[in-house]
Amino acid sequence: MIDIARFRAPPLLSVALVAGALAACNPTPGESATATAGESESDSGTDTDGEPEPLQGYADLHLHMFTEDAFGGGWLHGAALGDPAVALALCDGGSPGDHARVREDISDLIETCDQATIDAASSQAPLLAVLLAIGGDELSELLGEIPGTQGDTGEHLDRKGGWPELDGWPRWDTIAHQQSWEGWLKDAYDSGLRVEVISAVSFDWLCKAAPTENVARPQCDEMDDVRVQLEKANQFAAANDWVEIALTPEDARRIVSEDKLALILSIEASHIFGAGDWRAQLDEVYGLGVRTLQLVHQLDNRFGGAAPHNTMFHVAQFTENCHVDADCGITSPDVTLGFDVDANCRNVLGLTAEGRELVDEMIGRGMLIDLAHMSEALVSDVYDVAVTHDYYPLYFSHAHFREIMLPEKQKQEKTTPAYIVKMVRETGGMIGLRTGAEEVNTYEPSAVDNSCHGSSRSFAQAYDYGSRGLKVDIGFGADFNGFIQQLRPRFGDDACSASFTEERRCQAKEERLAGQSDGTRLDDWGLAHTGLLGAVLDDLDLLGSDTAPLRSSADTFVRMWERAAGERSGPADDAADMDESGVTVLPAHAIRRAQYPTECEETYCPGGLVAGDSCRFDAECESGTCAGAGECGEPRGVCE
Asked: Fewer Cβ within 10 Å of end Cβ, the chain: N or C?
């Protein structure tokens, strides 16, 4: 049987945008962008001591707003801009489908490897053999069968939906439909969002794996995709008076002070700048407004090493270098495909010579350096460079705190350990905390009970651990349209669904009985789109978390950028007060399941099912009656 969990859909993929006439409106490298933005530093408010007044509002450090143009335009359905009746219209949901599908034969994607290497790798890493054998339709459906989700890839006939969300799309587990439509971004702005980092994203491997009829740019050049998205971001800002692209920290402070949304443009691409002249391309995207970027994404590239985390990307890396590593096994128990790892399964590739040149060039331009997706070796190397530049600020646009994650997740290099958080603090950076759907350990000092796995209660554990324990500055790192799942709901059919069935039902039951609902879409559909970020803050307040630092994270981001552009002398913070204690590791599922009662040798949650739910016996139902059930649930009944 295929282990579906190993096909867990990855946090996604970098994007490329098209350069255009707007470049002429932006300053050339080395020139001040302040005049282009139309304001000077003196326009920003200051207090009587000359210090800038604290800015109001929260920040989201990672949004893929225009992912319909990522991956050659062959994956996401919907559009970020326009009339919702069109931008969020129904997908056809049928074969061959217009999106979210892998083509029938993907064997040509590894044609660079000789057959003997492929055969040997397939015998040691069964995933590779499976991918080559099952074909497009089955692989597409597997991507939609992630545990705890109904999925929206492949044919997804039973989940066809669109505006006005009559069939429950988008929802927390959406990975192939628009979550960042402009109207939803405006909702987030209305709830206090004042800094948004829009990341142009793409990944050529997914473009090449998509059916050719779905791909608008079949050359699958990541930077082409990036340029298209960057142009759209510029057009969006030009068309809306409540947003403005910030080209300098002075711009950002002024824009937020004027109660508008400051957009900061970024890039997330596995082959950023391709194989060509990266300096010329950096000039180009800088002219399009890019002021921060990631050196790496899912794969190693010319600048440095990526943090391996999802086995699908191991295969993609293998297609580029045909490497099979036996030092540690993360693709299978014995081997790692594609990545050169050490005995601890950590990528040994750090900063390359070209990577050092790129980092120095970014620092020279005052661009912010995003550590997301970097190998630990690469983070350490970039930190060393930052120290030589008087602790130039480093940040993560989207990250998980390693110590709060469950043991299996902690093994992933892509999670962020406390020693790296210390580096971030020392440089004056911050963390964009992923609004993920995972079950997490319990942070005991948190005022929020860890009693609804994958929901805002789980996010509270990570947020409180980071802000109270590690004492690092935090913003959102939501990653909408990023091929990842968002916070699960606390109510409804999917409530608390990051855990196993019996615990999920009992946790959902307790949520129902407590009745702490704020009545938003977040309750039943989870963090479905960017317009619900404000609802997450309100939900955290309702549950007892201190959201004041998160609600002022726009100011944190701007001050970090000001540090990058200003004078620095030594560390921003010695980070000596970090406290990693207080985390209680949850027992394994099997141990927790054994604590539930059984009937007919089946474990169950007492009263965990509500009226209308299918049931096996009376004790499962909240009402105490499972009407029509036969002995031991043969046939099944219905809760009254």
From this structure: N
189 and 240 inside one domain = yes
Phi, psi angles (nearest 5°) of residue 219: -70, -15
Q: Which domain holds residue 126?
A: 89-165+308-342
Beta-bridge partners for 244: 262
- Scanning the structure block, which residue is given the tokens 């899912």? 298
281 and 190 in a common domain: yes
Q: Considering only CA atoms, which of 554, 531, 481 is closest in space to residue 65?
A: 481
Which helix (H) or strand (E) covers residue 442, if one does? strand 442-443
Indicate the helix (H) or strand (E) that contains 418: helix 418-427
Q: Which residue has the tokens 């049987």?
A: 1
CA-to-CA distance for 104 and 117, rounded, in angstroms? 23
Taking the C-alpha atoms of residue 398 and residue 373, their distance in angstroms, rounded to an integer, is 9
Q: Provide the residue type at 133 as one letter.
A: A
Q: Give the pair of three-digit tokens for residue 520.
A: 């938003």
Residue 39 · residue 252 · CB < 8 Å: no
Counting Cβ atoms within 10 Å, is residue 401 exposed (0-12), middle (13-18) or buried (19+)? buried
Question: For the segment 251-301, what is each residue's pLDDT rounded down to a tens digit?
Answer: 999 999 999 999 999 999 999 999 999 999 999 999 999 999 999 999 999
Residue 525 region, left (φ>0) first, then alpha (ψ -120 to 50), else beta? alpha
- Per the model's pLDDT, the better-predicted residue between 209 and 564 turns out to be 564
Residue 226 included in any domain: yes
The pLDDT tens digits of the residues spanning 578-592 come to 999 999 999 999 999
Q: Residues 467, 542: contact at Cβ < 8 Å?
A: no
Please enumerate in sequence order all residues whose Cβ is within 8 A of that of 27, keeping only pairs 6 or more positions apart, or say none: 33, 35, 36, 247, 287
User: Would you say residue 388 lies in a domain?
Assistant: no
Nearest of 304, 82, 330, 61 to residue 197 by alpha carbon: 61
The answer to whether residues 103 and 37 belong to one domain is: no
Cβ neighbors of 556 (< 8 A, separation 6 or more) are 59, 430, 473, 475, 549
- How far is residue 172's CA from residue 231's CA, in Å, rounded to a whole number? 28
Structure tokens belonging to residue 45:
């408010």
* The overall pTM is greater than 0.85: yes
3-state secondary structure 219-267: CCCHHHHHHHHHHHHHHHHHHCCCEEECCCHHHHHHHHHCCCEEEEEEE
3 state DSSP class of 41? helix
CA 615 to chain CA centroid, nearest Å? 36
User: Rounded to an integer, what distance in angstroms lies between the CA atom of residue 264 and that of residue 61?
Assistant: 9
Q: How many helices (H) and strands (E) does the chain have?
A: 21, 18
Quote the CA–CA distance of 243 and 310 in Å, as a whole number: 35
Determine, yes or no, domain membership for 587.
Answer: no
160 and 124 in a single domain? The answer is: yes
